[in-house]
Amino acid sequence: MKKIIYLLAIATLSWACSTSTADISGCIDTPNTKVNLSKLGASTQVLLDTVRTDAKGCFRYKLKIQDNEPVFLLVKTDSAHIATLLANKGEKIQLTAQKNTPQYTVSGSEGSLQLQELNNNFNTSMLKFDSLYRVLKIAEGSKDYAAIYKKINLELGAVYVKQKRETIK
User: How far is Cα 95 from Cα 107, in angstroms, rounded to an integer?
Assistant: First the structure.
């Protein structure tokens, strides 16, 4: 009898060590909305679950994590990307976002914080690219277009180099 209890205890302990969870809670500004949670692979996206926000726009999800491998998780609604998270077992990730903006805040996960920083830097660079492109379009046909084009092109290059460095970092 002692051997059976001992073996059951070992089996339970080994199962508990190989499978664990990350707790994900979030609030977006839209109550009663479906939130899709998908696991991202190198070239795949697998829908794990769909949860619904409550009357305050908040949701909770327990993500099963196996073999101590972090999981890239895409959080989105039917119409908008909310955030990309990097979840490790034992983390308690808290997400706050607005549905129609690319900005979000995250806490409780170092990997998710780094992804948030990467996302924010990318969005800032895209805004600068768009702004410079608009200036260039407005300048089309002007007598100073060649000089403006050269200046804008240098600025675009600087934004690109800065974004690339931030991404590598």
Answer: 7
CA neighbours within 13 Å on the CB side: how many for 34? 7
Helix (H) or strand (E) holding 162: helix 145-168
Dig out the tokens for 61 from the structure. Answer: 């999800």
User: What's the confidence (pLDDT) of residue 18?
Assistant: 45
Q: Is the pTM of this model over 0.85?
A: no
When pLDDT is cut at 50, 70 and 90, the band that residue 7 belongs to is: very low
Per-residue pLDDT of 30-89, as tens digits, reads 899 999 999 998 899 999 999 999 999 999 999 998 878 899 999 998 888 889 999 999
Could you give the count of Cα atoms lying within 13 Å of 28 in the half-sphere of its Cβ?
A: 25
Beta bridge partners of 83: 75
Radius of gyration of the chain (CA): 23
Q: What are phi and psi of 40, to 5 degrees?
A: -100, 130
DSSP reduced 3-state for 103: coil
From the CB of residue 154, how many other CB atoms can be counted at a distance below 10 Å? 10
- Strand residues in the chain grouped as ranges (E): 19-28, 34-40, 45-52, 58-66, 71-76, 81-87, 92-97, 104-107
In the three-class reduction of DSSP (H, G, I as helix; E, B as strand; rest coil), residue 7 is classed as: helix
In the prediction, which pLDDT does 85 show? Answer: 95
